[in-house]
Design brief:
Length: 280
């Protein structure tokens, strides 16, 4: 829930750059400090595509939500690693398609918490909530999300730009498995995760610099490692791809958009296989 004590300037360090605020800077937002702009500019000088990458990530978020609410009829969204509010957040995208959509946001950054009221502007038919929690606390997230979401019904779980902030790969897989296990069949998992599959050493160097100046650190993973998050689920076409190429909007110029080093996928949780009869 939103905590009034978390006023701007309280509970976060303005001398250390931070992922959510650098991201906000690259997206053209105003909720960032000099230290974040400096770190963001330094990374962008090393890897100029990073700004396009942040924007392609956000555009994927918009397309995935439109698809999930529109074509798949999802009415419940659990968005972990929400980021600072921008012009078009998950609830706005979902409720544009389905005004009765219910959204729970989760982030562990005090600055995101202090701006969370901008995320709680639900349509009257739907609902929004915010949980101040860490992705590595899946049980806390699930129990608090159950205030707003009916976990016996399908939920779209969004892990966009957040799993690469968990350094331990086994822990990241365990957390995703725990969250998905708690969701009803027919739920969806959408992931967007940084990699170096496109820019190689330039991306790795930029992330090494990020990890020296910013928090939380980033751990790049290969497309194969990202695909493993979807084990046991039905991965939708086109599979795990650069987020700029996941069902892109048709461009008047034709052709595929350039790839960026954020790979994504969307998958459905299948119904359990019917128990096979044991021979007598
Ligand atoms: C790069 S932003 C992504 C924002 C948004 N999901 C998007 O795709 O545009 C990453 C967000 O994840 C949050 N985050 C990082 N580690 C986290 C953790 N362990 N638990 C919860 N949130 C986390 C950061 O505070 C930040 O707001």
């Amino acid at each position: 829930m939103v905590d009034d004590a978390a006023a701007p300037g309280v509970g976060f360090d303005t001398t250390v750059s931070h992922s959510a605020r650098i991201w906000n800077y690259w997206l053209g937002g105003k909720d960032n400090f000099a230290v974040d702009r400096e770190a963001g500019d330094k990374v962008a000088a090393m890897l100029p595509i990073i700004v396009a990458q942040a924007r392609a990530d956000r555009a994927f978020l918009g397309r995935a939500i439109r698809y999930l609410a529109g074509q798949e009829g999802m009415r419940q969204f659990l968005d972990i690693g929400t980021g600072l509010p921008t012009a078009d957040n998950t609830h706005q995208g979902a409720q544009r398609v389905a005004p009765d959509a219910r959204i729970v946001y989760v982030d562990n950054d005090p600055l995101v918490l202090s701006h969370a009221r901008a995320l709680l502007t639900s349509s009257p038919e739907g609902a929004c909530d915010y949980i101040d929690a860490d992705l590595r606390e899946p049980d806390k997230i699930l129990s608090e999300a159950a205030r707003t979401l009916d976990l016996t019904q399908p939920v779209a779980l969004l892990l966009l730009g957040v799993l690469h902030h968990i350094p331990d790969t086994d822990q990241a897989y365990t957390v995703v498995r725990r969250l998905v296990a708690a969701l009803a069949p027919g739920s969806f998992l959408a992931i967007n995760h940084s990699t170096s599959a496109v820019s190689g050493a330039a991306m790795e160097e930029a992330v090494a610099h990020w990890n020296k100046v910013g928090t939380p650190t980033m751990t790049l993973r290969s497309p194969e490692q990202i695909t493993r998050f979807f084990d046991g689920l039905d991965l939708l076409e086109p599979g795990v791809v650069s987020c700029s190429r996941w069902r892109p909007d048709i461009s008047p110029l034709g052709g595929q958009p350039p790839q960026v080093d954020e790979f994504c996928g969307v998958a459905r949780k299948p119904s359990p296989a019917p128990a096979t009869a044991q021979p007598a």
